[in-house]
Amino acid sequence: MSQYRARPPALATLLLDDAVVRITRWDFEPGADTGVHTHGFGYVVVPMTDCKFLLEDRDGSRRVDVAKGAAYRREAGAEHNVVNAGSEPMSFIEIEYK
Q1: CATH number at residue 15
Q2: pTM value > 0.85
Q3: What is the domain range of residue 35?
Q4: Around Cβ 81, how many Cβ atoms within 10 Å?
Q5: E strand or H helix at 90, and its extent?
Q6: Along the 98 residues of the chain, how does pLDDT read in single tens digits?
Q7: Domain count of the chain?
């Protein structure tokens, strides 16, 4: 795999990791991405800013705008790349339940 990336990486800050949950704060500059990953646990996302997501998965890509504070949940097994498609920095808290 190449060491070069087309996009800047999002910054992940681990806030808590115990027997019950893993909580991570994700910060993205415009155009930054997480890289393709698969979620091993179900999770909840709580946007700390308005988020303009570009979600890339094996079915293609789609834009999703989520307002600050509008939490959502997904099941384990989600595989995707998350990109900040907006012109402003964005951040969210991801809470994975074990």
Answers
A1: 2.60.120.10
A2: yes
A3: 9-95
A4: 15
A5: strand 90-97
A6: 445 568 999 999 999 999 999 999 999 999 999 999 999 999 999 999 999 999 999 999 999 999 999 999 999 999 999 999 999 999 999 999 99
A7: 1
